Structure formats: structure tokens, C-alpha cells
Amino acid sequence: MVIGFFVRLYTLVFGAIERLTEGWFLGLASRLIFAAVLFQFFWNSALTKIGGSIMNIFTPTAGAYAQMLPAMMEQVSYDTSQIAFFPYGLIVLLGTWGEFILPVLVVVGLFTRAASLGMIVFIIVMTYVDITGHGADAKTIGALFDGDPYAIIADDRLLWIFLLLVPTLKGPGLISLDALLGVQYRKREMYY
User: Fold this and answer.
1) What's the pLDDT score for residue 47?
2) Is 123 part of any domain?
3) Model-level pTM?
4) What confidence tens digit (pLDDT) does each residue in 55-73 have?
5) Number of domains present in the structure of the chain
6) Which domain holds residue 35?
């Protein structure tokens, strides 16, 4: 009898919370947390790839090449003129643009699902390069279920990916450019 009361109370309270937040809260919260925790990290990282000047957006620095293609840069003594534009220079250019554009799209909620998925892929590639190209040590890499939350790569990046899975799977929420443009699109469709 008493247990039944608590089960009904539990169901009532959390059912109400779920109904009140459905369709808007998770997407918005994940985007705001991404903005608060990760946006500046990616933005600053992207700035290093263009020497801090937006005028270099079409000519990533040698540092950009060294960050993304460390072994190749070492082989050519850090002389980017020895690296073919296709495919390697194009990879660096698109990676640099992605590091600027994708976080902005996630935060403002525009093409959010695709941008969030793009960020997940970006994080996976970044992690691979950090481990294989930059030779991250075992302490930095860490391991899942190791009980060490200070191991940067395994633990942190898994949380980053989970944070981005929310808008990928649930959408950006009602407070987003996607939602605003969707309303405008539906209004326009009604008149045609």
C-alpha cells in the first residue's frame, strides 16, 4: 500500500517533468553546456590554425599542419610547401574550417543534427591523431572504467561525444535557428 503510493507519486512527479521538458529542454541544455564548456576550446584551437587572424582562413599555418598531420610534417622538416594540397592540404583546410563552423552551428542551433554529428566525427579524428600522431602517453589517454577521471582523452572525450549525441538524436530544441526556420518554412508552405 505504502509502496504503491510512492510509485504513483514518483510516476506523477517525473512524468510531469518529462512532459514539461519534452521537445525543448534536452537539446537546448546540451547546446548551452557545449557553449559553456567546449566552444571556447574549439574556437581557440581553430585560431591557432590560422595564426590568430581571420584573414588566414584560406591559408592555414604550419601549426595547423603540425596539429593535424604531425608525422608528415616531421618527415618534411615542417615545410608545408612539400605537402601536396590534394588531399593533405585540403584535409587541413577543411579541418580548420570545421573547427570554426561546426561549434557555431551547434551553439546557435542551425543544421544542429548534422553539425553535432560532424563534431562527433571531429572529436574521434582529433582523438585518433592525439594518440597516434602526437604520441599521447598512457596516463593522458587513460582507459574507460579505470576510476581515474583525470585521464583527459578517454574520459573527457567520451563525455564530449555524449553531450553532442543529445542534439544529434533529439534535435536542438525549440529555442534554436532550426526551430525558427522550421516555423517560417511551415508558414510559407501553407500559402503555396
Assistant:
1) 95
2) yes
3) 0.89
4) 889 999 999 999 999 999 9
5) 1
6) 24-190
